[in-house]
Amino acid sequence: MALRKRSRIGGVGLVVAAVAATAFTAPAHAAPDPAGASGHGATQRAMDAAVRAGVPGVTAQARDGRGVWKAASGVGNLKTGEPRGKDDRFRVGSITKTFMATVLLQMEAEGRLSLDDTVDHHLPGLVRGNGNDGRGITVRQLLNHTSGLFDYLADKKYSETYMEGDGYLKHRYDTLPPKKHIRVALSHRPLFKPGAKHSYSNTNYILAGLIVEKIGKRTYEDEVRDRIIEPLGLKATSNPGNSIHLPRPSSRGYSKLFRSQPDRIDDITEMNGSQGWGDGDIISSAGDLTRFYSALLRGKLLPPRQLKAMKTTVSNAEGQDTGYGLGLQRFETKCGGTVWGHGGGMVGWLSLAVTSEDGRHQLAFNYNGDWESDSILPIMDAEYC
Q1: What is the pLDDT of residues 275-296, one digit of tens each?
Q2: Residue 342: is its pLDDT beyond 80?
Q3: What gap in Å lies between CA 331 and CA 338, rounded to an integer?
Q4: Of 3, 208, 221, 270, which is most buried by a Cβ count within 10 Å?
């Protein structure tokens, strides 16, 4: 799921409804700090500034040639005041999309599909109605969000039921099958002709997950575990299924669910994991995310041709400093560098994980609150500038 500035879309549900890769397009304000960049001091100060701005807590990890740096700021439990943990597990939201795209590109390398296959080739008849037609949408267009399919999270009724206010509190434990999300999306007309432009839609990655399962003849979760989690030893990473709990160690997650009560904060830690699925369900840690993106950009998960395809970007309409590839986003830092990764959000959580192009310098961090997104890019810039 994606993450945009609250002011752009006006409500807590749609903040996460859009936790899109285009979320992180606001200008960053952290000044270059050579001493901080080498010792992570500037990164810690940017995290502390986010907490002063209202984020409950931040957990982070960076990896570079000097080793591993773990850090935290703020609290993990507003009721007890317990500090945020440096090894916390959290819901990564749309960072899941990089895992999904990696699995599909591995399958392509194995000759089991083509990026130019149509959705209908693998899921015949599923995408039909209201002008939607899977016969004209390719796998590549799903992965780079040029399909034109409506984002199911932006559906007003869905958002009010599962992502906002009393609706969320009432339905947070519901199990939602993937095809429910598809039905919601197909109740809307497409936004544009497939391939015409880029528009972030979580619906694309629900369909990607269904294609993975059709090709692999087993669950998307099994494919992610056997292809990525276990080979890389990501011991803090898991797919929750329909579990409502976060594995330990973890902190509480918080949301401002009620747009009419902007100062109200609810503990939303427990939620049914199926409400994210292949577009945003993974639980991980900052440490595991740095290992994942390092392995990916260093070519340990994909052959060169597939990694090149993953890094072939289309322009984001909302940000000149970013580009979107196949489940992978390019960010330009304030000081002119390029990093690759993805942002993510769920109700109650905001995250960013990025790596240098050579895969030798990573940063991943998470907020246990789903507001104050303007402070995210300054943390990235503090680390890399």
Answers
A1: 999 999 999 999 999 999 999 9
A2: yes
A3: 6
A4: 3
Identify residue 361 by its one-letter amino acid code. H
CA distance 182 to 165: 23
Sheet containing 57-64, strands listed edge to edge, beginning at the edge strand earlier in sequence: 67-74, 57-64, 362-367, 349-356, 338-346, 329-332, 319-324, 314-316
Tell me the residue type at 112.
R
Is the pTM of the predicted complex or chain greater than 0.90? yes
**Cross-strand partners of 72:** 59
284 has catalytic annotation: no
Q: What is the pLDDT of residue 24?
A: 42
CA angle 200/202/27 to nearest 5° reads 40
Return d(Cα 357, Cα 335) in angstroms, integer: 15
pLDDT at 315: 84
DSSP string, 65-80: TTEEEEEEEEBS-TTT
Burial environment of residue 217 by CB neighbours within 10 A (0 to 12, 13 to 18, 19 or more): exposed
For 228, list phi and psi in degrees, rounded to 5.
-125, -55
What angle do helix axes 376-384 and 41-53 make, rounded to 10 degrees? 170
> Which candidate in 7, 38, 73, 94 is catalytic?
94
For 175-236, the DSSP string reads: ---HHHHHHHHHTS--SSSTTSS----THHHHHHHHHHHHHHTS-HHHHHIIIIIHHHT-TT
3-state SS class at 310 = helix
Which residues does residue 57 pair with via DSSP β-bridges, in sequence order? 74
Report the alpha-carbon distance of residue 385 to residue 373 in Å, rounded: 20
pLDDT band at 20 (very low <50, low <70, confident <90, very high): very low
Three-state DSSP state, 3: coil
For 168, phi then psi, to 5°, come to: -60, -45
234-261: pLDDT as tens digits: 999 999 999 999 999 999 999 999 999 9
**Averaged pLDDT, 141-152:** 98
